[in-house]
Amino acid sequence: MAVLHVLDTVGGRLLRRAGRSVRHHSNRLREVDRHRRHTVIPAQADALDELMRDTLRFFDATAPAITDDTTASCVRQAITTYLRDLITDGREHDRSNLQRMIVGAGCLQAAA
Fold it and tell me: Does residue 112 form part of some domain?
């Protein structure tokens, strides 16, 4: 849920920040789901901090009720890394890749 929220927010910001050449096609781009716009509007790595600013507030607000602070911090970092890579590479979100990232970071045990 948090990942889709971030991608949705970033998709809206990408469209607003897009140059003229991209905005020229904005009617077509508006038909693309916001959480998928990063796959059609390139994002520069140096713009990610601004694009993702305040997007994980939902995660930050709910994680403490679900797990301890150490695990929540690890998961947040894994999600942030996953999202940054996903957005700059223009790849679709894949839950299994996200799960592998979280487990690979040592945050959680792999699901049985």
Answer: no
Provide the token pair at 93: 């979100």
Instruction: Read off the DSSP letter of residue 111.
Output: P
Domain count, the chain: 1
- Indicate whether 111 pLDDT > 80: no
Residue 16 lies in a domain: yes
Residue 78 to residue 26: CA distance in whole angstroms: 32
* Burial label, 85 (beta-carbon count in 10 A; 0-12, 13-18, 19+): middle
Q: How does 30-54 read in b/e, with b if 16+ C-beta sit within 10 Å?
A: eeeebbebbbebebeeebbeebbee
pTM (2 d.p.)? 0.84
27: containing domain? 2-104
Q: How confident is the model over 26-81, as pLDDT tens digits?
A: 667 778 899 999 999 889 889 999 999 999 888 888 877 777 788 888 998 999 99
pLDDT score of 19: 67
